[in-house]
Amino acid sequence: MSNSYRTEHASDSMRGRSRVTDTPDLHAYYRELEAVSATAFWKRANEIEPWEPITRYSPTLWRYDDLRPLVLRSAELVRPEEAGRRVVVLINDSDAGRQHTAAVGWLFSGLQIMKPGEITPAHRHTASAHRFIMEGGGAYTVVDGHEITLEGNDYVLTPNGCWHDHGVFADGQISIWQDGLDIPLMNALETNFYAVYPEERQTPLHARDDSPLSYGAGGMLPAYGPAWDKPYSPLQVYRWATTRDALYNLAKVSDGCPFDGHIMRYSNPVTGGWALKTLGAHMQMLKPGLHTRAHRHTGNVVYNVAEGEGYSIIGGQRIDWKKHDIFCVPAWTWHEHVNTHKGEQAFLFSFNDFPVMEALGLYMTEAYDSNSGYQSNNGSGS
């Protein structure tokens, strides 16, 4: 939905905003209210009801070249059975990010590493989770008895409330993936629960990779067996090759979106909606040399560079990126993307809280209509 709350001429001196001039009698009145744990709404109205969203988070870049050696070191210092989950957490460079252990907004993210033969003990939680596989091979997850193999640039679901454990087969490689969860949202709603499985790991109840083999063919669903009736996607891993080919095919018949290039969302093949109830994800392709126009939206986004190199301008700040760098766009912040390579596409994986925004009727977008749709660059964030 486009922004219908245009604020170009907004002023707190306008009728309908708090314009009370305090007097000695009012100050005395305020003290009486405080004594009974109350206050005057007009004292706080303009602050708690801004003209438009004001983010408390900052555009932040996490360079993979900086993070990778630290993530590898964690594997030498801590065992997964001791840590529960051996994750290096990405903290937004803001007071709000540090307070809420958030990458941006109500989104948590971190990098998890597993060595061959290791396992993260089985558990479940209220928070929804998903993972983007960054490197390695021979990794797997078991979600409510479904064993799924994982490879580079795969997108993997761990729906809330599902038992899950992760590991790397003994003949696999050291594997690193990005975790994304809505832990800050669950804590803000005071709805966070956590439980551990009775055993260290689950026993798979189905054939290996039954989920992608049953639901991974675009536009096709099994015509027999029980109907899928759970509130999340039955396709628990979205393979990179299938995702990439879908974008290539889309580019054959479409010029793409002016703000995101060619972009597709990971969807539930049964409903066509988001794969998870509270977390959304996209993969987008930027053609060589593409410079998208700027726009902004409610909701927060965390990006991971699946392939390529370029930069984004976020709130007027240039952030240069290359493969597996991670960066974020806070809510209602202007942003645009540039693929600086003249011969190869760039691919950006991203996850967001858009399903929550849409469910609450709060998702809103706005195009940048100055300077032909491009922001001024306030300097490099590289």
Please characterize this protein's 3D structure.
The protein has 382 residues and is of the alpha+beta class. It has two domains: 61-215, Jelly Rolls (Sandwich), CATH 2.60.120.10; 239-373, Jelly Rolls (Sandwich), CATH 2.60.120.10. 20% of the residues lie in helices and 30% in strands. It has nine helices and 20 strands. The chain has helices spanning 24-35, 41-48, 64-77, 80-83, 95-100, 183-188, 210-215, 240-253, 354-359, and strands at 61-62, 87-89, 108-114, 119-125, 129-143, 146-150, 155-158, 164-181, 194-196, 237-238, 262-265, 280-286, 295-297, 301-307, 310-314, 317-321, 326-329, 335-339, 346-352, 365-367. Strands 2, 3, 4, 5, 6, 7, 8, 9 and 10 form a nine-stranded antiparallel beta sheet that branches. A six-stranded antiparallel beta sheet has the order 1-17-14-19-12-11. β5 and β6 form a beta hairpin. The model has no long low-confidence stretch (mean pLDDT 95).
